[in-house]
Amino acid sequence: MDLTVFWCCVVTCVFAIYFYVKKQYRFWADNGFIYAKPTFPFGNVWGLGWKKHASLSLQDHYREMKGKDIIMGMYFMTSPMALILDLDFLKDVLVKDFQYFHDRGVYVNERDDPLSGHLFGLKGQKWKVLRGKLSPTFTSGKMKMMHSTITGVALEFQKALEPHAQKGEEIEFKDFLARFTTDVIGNCAFGIECNSLKDPETEFRKIGRQVFQFTPGVLFKVILAQWCPSLAKALRIKLNSDTVTNFFMNLLRDTIDYREKNNVKRNDFLSLMIQLKNTGKLEGDNTDLGKLTFEELAAQIFIFFVGGFDTSSATMTFALYEMALNQDIQDRVREKVKTVLEKHGGEYTYEACMELKYLDRVIQETLRKYPILDNLSRIVTNDYKIPGSNRVLKKGTPIGVPVYAIHRDPEIYPNPEIFDPDRFTEENIQNRHPMAYLPFGEGPRVCIGMRFGMMQTRVGLATVLSKYRVQVTQKTPVPMTFIPSSAFLSPVGGMWLRIEKL
To answer: Which of 199, 235, 305, 488 is most buried as measured by Cβ atoms within 10 A of its Cβ?
Structure first.
């Protein structure tokens, strides 16, 4: 090729890319929306998980633009995305006009990555059908059935803490609590004794850590899958590694095969899933919910594991951190726990745990300051005209809900950095906007495992505080800083606290 022709082609391509990007970056202005100024090639995502945690970057945009409009424009690479700034409009999106925003925009590739076909990520009618099948497995009655399993693991947790408490040692609580919740989920989801509390290097703990390891290669796949999911599917991109997929699929096949051959029945989530797989019904209920395939079953067990162990352990970690900083609150929780336990013969019965109302307020305030899902996502599934205006959100546009920013908005929660469980008295809850508190989402796609998560968090915290006192040390992260690249809010350097036996 002639050198002149070559350079003409290069210059033409550069100009074509320049004008394409320039046109893309005028999308929000051309459609009448306020927006954050983008920078090529990352748009507004530079810093989201790079320099500081995404929740803090979105909080900056929220605080800068709030009150100027009900929604603002941003860019993920060159693709438009939007951030909600108004709670009334947020209610429209999550509840009132849900039919326009029913998908999360999570990458799903069931052909190559069967564990991705879980309830959290599925879209449209497929999500609706599966939600209908699974909802009966998360009722209060089914949670009560699993409660004794959780309390059994909690006793092992107490034994694991005892030698450290006797010596008044400082320990890294985040890992300890992750081992506790891993054992809980292993028992409730798989009916398997994981023994993570006795051995931190069990296979379950290794796999659990691997799920949330975001290497440069994994991050590239995530960005590609979110930016251009059709291309990612064409390239057969998988976000779960073969190691993780093979571990869960083989474990489930072996466990189900053993149970069915030996007629083993347990009070756990897997038992409920097997019932749906085989009959499409749950024992004691004649409602035909429809059968699950093995792949559907595996994906739901996987998300139950992933969504249960790290989220609840993080919530307990931050709750203990705040109670170590606020000893008066810790003492009050302990007093309430002991009073309820005495009433129930010293047993952590289901009824006893449901009476721990002040502990619930502590958990709610923890989830306000440290929401596990710090940003909710939705996709516009059909062109949507914004109420009271002629502006339209176009089909396919991603929508972000800055939960962390809303939870720390001083106009909603005065002095938001102060930890105050009394924000969650019945009176104070009633006086706030219903969209002002979103740790589990809201509307038809509210977290289906909310009851289970609250139950194991309640039991875990009550187990620690009834026997031990936690205090800050020189290694405790004060002030709190988050790992920028973490999927969830996670303290830099872990969570070191001193534990002492009462």
So the answer is: 305
Residue-wise pLDDT for 59-105, tens only, equals: 999 999 999 999 999 998 888 999 999 999 999 999 999 999 999 98
- To which H or E segment does residue 430 belong? helix 426-430
CB atoms within 10 A of CB 132: 12
Paired tokens of 419: 């930890």
Q: How far is the C-alpha of 438 from the C-alpha of 460, rounded, in Å?
A: 22
Handedness of CA 93, 98, 104, 105 (dihedral sign): negative
Which residues are 103's β-sheet partners? 379
Least confident of 266-270, 351-355, 422-426, 458-462: 266-270
What tokens does 16 get?
A: 């074509």
Of 128-137, 323-332, 469-478, least confident by mean pLDDT is 128-137
For tokens 């303290």, the residue is 491
Report the residue count for the chain.
502
What is the rounded average pLDDT for all residues in the chain? 89
Check: CB of residue 397 under 8 Å from CB of residue 379: yes
- Of 354, 369, 356, 355, which is closest to residue 317 (Cα–Cα)? 369
What is the DSSP annotation of 115-179? GG-STTT--HHHHHHHHHHHGGGGSHHHHHHHHHHHHHHHHHHHHHHHHHHHHT-EEEHHHHHHH
Q: CB burial class (10 A; 0-12, 13-18, 19+) of residue 479?
A: exposed
Whether the pTM exceeds 0.85: the reply is yes
pLDDT exceeds cutoff 70 at 389: yes
The set of residues, in sequence order, having a beta carbon less than 8 Å from that of 297 and lying 6+ positions away, is 252, 256, 273, 274, 276, 277
190 CB-near residues (< 8 Å, 6+ apart): 251, 252, 255, 268, 270, 301, 305
Does the bond joining 479 to the residue before it have cis omega, within 30 degrees of 0?
Answer: yes
In this structure, the strands spanning 398-401 and 79-84 are: parallel
Write the Ramachandran bin of 492: left for phi over 0, alpha for psi from -120 to 50, otherwise beta: beta
Q: Which SS3 state, helix, strand or coil, does residue 379 take?
A: strand
Q: What is the pLDDT of residues 159-176, one digit of tens each?
A: 999 999 999 999 999 989
C-beta separation of 472 from 142 below 8 A: no
